[in-house]
Specification:
- The chain is elongated and about 105 Å long.
- The longest helix is centred in the N-terminal third of the chain and has 36 residues.
- The strands form 4 sheets. It has a 6-stranded antiparallel beta sheet.
- With 550 residues, the chain is of the alpha+beta class.
């Protein structure tokens, strides 16, 4: 499911994002409890899983180069050097280990959370593989490392762990200590079981490992705390009321839109966050802006039309950003529809426009004027068994004409509409505005659907506004690749009348006028389903989202 929110016409493409429900955050726990790694944000989990895979590939490659090249060089001078010695099998096992980790993460065979548990096991087994290569055949390396102040390769591996696959600090400490112990255990096994001579005193060897691998384990623990606490703080910063932000799906001048999950309910939602700076800095302007955004949320939530986006909740974050929570929709804006798939036939245009009228008709009957009707704010989607189901979004400039809104509240930080879809009376800034300003914009939307062009397009916003005030539009039939019926031409041009009195009196009348056009053909539910099955099939995750702008 998806929510697209837009206030600018520059959005031209739709890119799908799939959010796996299993990857949504579930609980927030203290970093030292050893609790589930789901306390980290999903993108950190996903990126860590990817890094773990590449760490496996690098481990396998480095092991191959570091072990087998010296072995074959040595075998060239010592032909009797056996291929069947134990070290060779350990090397093959270690290389297979790294390759397996890479394959598991690349194929998404396990979830990101489980991949980080795999990372802990890889940390220990990978260190064991390094220790076996270093110390199984004897201990001359120990004397050399001590004399030249070197460190075992396990130390490097241990330090990399918290950066590659972050986990809870306690788990990382246990894994790091276990990894640090692999070298001493291999040496102890060689001395006590296999009877290999130790070239340095036991205390010297113990001290050496304490100040190399075990010190690195302590450093890894500190690094794990830093990385983990950063992730926890990031996740907490994404907690808004009863919701957890999961994935950003849109951004623009006003703020951001996120997929969100309610803590208690399974229903995913979309949260629109308004940037705090748009609320103003002084108390008066801030209060006015908050009143304006609260009004938008309340006005939209109060509307019952099935063709108006549902608003579930709204409020202020701890950082002072205004937010409201809306339903998620699976589909695309009419702006994207035309840009990606070309203009639509007249029958489909009528089908879409009539649903817009349904939403606006209710809003107008309550004295609410949208004032920013445009293709980017009209969404066509799948909704249950229905396809090509329209939702009108973003009543962001809504004006209550019955109450007599004060201009300073209505206009805080925003202009009144979008130039390419602005009625002349809005351009003039007239004090009395009614629903016919929205019907002018519906005519512009119909023009866009039929032709793929705006009614007027100029080099600047002011020139576009002046064209709407002064110029007469060409009929859509002159620019459409489809045969547009004369009756539909006339309805569109009537909506585009310069004076409100020349337009249909209300949205219900416009709906009836569109329904009465018999020469446009039909767009049936079967037509809609076939189009959506071909162009926008349901994903396996059944949760596609559409990126947009705010």
């Amino acid at each position: 499911m998806a929510l697209h929110l837009a206030t600018d016409d520059s959005e031209v493409t739709r890119s799908a994002v799939v959010v796996n429900r299993a990857h949504l955050p579930t609980a927030s726990e203290d970093a030292d409890t050893g609790g589930p790694i789901t306390t980290l944000p999903p993108e950190i989990l996903k990126e860590s899983a990817t890094r773990l895979g590449w760490a496996g590939a690098i481990y396998a490659t480095a092991y191959t180069i570091a072990y087998w090249i010296p072995f074959f060089v040595q075998r060239a001078s010592q032909p009797d050097l056996s291929m069947w010695r134990a070290e060779n099998f350990f090397a093959l096992w270690s290389i297979a280990l790294g390759a397996s980790v890479f394959a598991l993460t690349r194929r998404n065979a396990i979830s990101p959370e489980r991949s980080l548990d795999l990372g802990l096991a890889f940390a220990i087994l990978g260190a064991l593989g390094i220790a076996l290569a270093e110390f199984w055949g004897g201990f001359p390396e120990i004397r050399s490392l001590i004399e030249y102040n070197g460190v075992p390769w396990e130390s490097v591996w241990i330090l990399i762990l918290p950066l590659v696959a972050p986990n809870t600090p306690k788990r990382m400490l246990v894994a790091s200590l276990a990894a640090a112990s692999t070298g001493p255990l291999v040496v102890a096994y060689g001395v006590l079981v296999r009877g290999l001579p130790l070239p340095v005193p036991v205390l010297t060897a113990v001290t050496y490992f304490l100040f190399t691998t075990y010190v690195c384990a302590g450093i890894a623990y500190v690094g794990a705390r830093i990385v983990y606490h950063y992730g926890v703080r990031l996740k907490k910063a994404r907690e808004i009321g009863s919701y957890v932000l999961v994935d950003r799906i849109g951004e623009g001048g006003m703020g951001e839109v996120w997929i969100a999950r309610h803590r208690m309910l399974a229903r995913p939602s979309a949260i629109k966050l308004i940037r705090p700076e748009l609320l103003g800095t002084d108390p008066h302007s801030r209060a006015m802006a908050i009143a304006r955004f609260e009004r938008e949320a309340r006005a939209t939530a109060a509307l019952g039309s099935t063709h108006t986006v549902n608003v579930h909740d709204f409020g202020l974050t701890d950082e002072g950003a205004f937010f409201y929570v809306m339903e998620l929709l699976d589909g695309m804006s009419l702006d994207t529809l035309v840009r990606k798939y070309e203009p639509v036939p007249p029958a489909r245009a009528i089908h879409l426009l009539r649903q817009v009228c349904h939403s606006l008709g209710e809003a107008h009957s309550r004295g609410l004027i949208h004032r920013d009707v445009k293709p980017a704010n009209i969404f066509t989607c799948r909704l249950g068994p229905d396809a090509d189901f329209v939702k009108v979004l973003d009543f962001g400039l809504v004006k209550n004409v019955d109450r007599g809104d004060r201009p300073e509240i209505t206009a805080v930080h925003l202009g009144a509409g979008t130039p390419a879809y602005m009625a002349p009376e809005l351009a003039f800034g007239q004090a009395v505005i009614d629903g016919r300003a929205d019907l002018y914009a519906v005519g512009c939307v119909g023009y866009w659907l039929l032709t793929g062009q705006m009614v007027f397009k100029a080099e600047t916003s002011m020139a576009t506004i002046l064209a709407h005030v002064r110029n007469e539009p060409e009929p859509p039939s002159h620019k459409s690749k489809y045969p547009v019926p004369t009756a539909l031409d006339e309805v569109i041009l009537q909506c585009l009348a310069k004076k409100p009195s020349g337009r249909p009196p209300d949205a219900q009348t416009l709906d009836r006028m569109l329904a009465a056009i018999q020469t446009a053909g039909t767009w049936t539910t079967d037509d809609a389903r076939r189009w959506w099955d071909e162009h926008h099939p349901v994903t396996k995750a059944e949760q596609p989202t559409t990126r947009g702008r705010v």
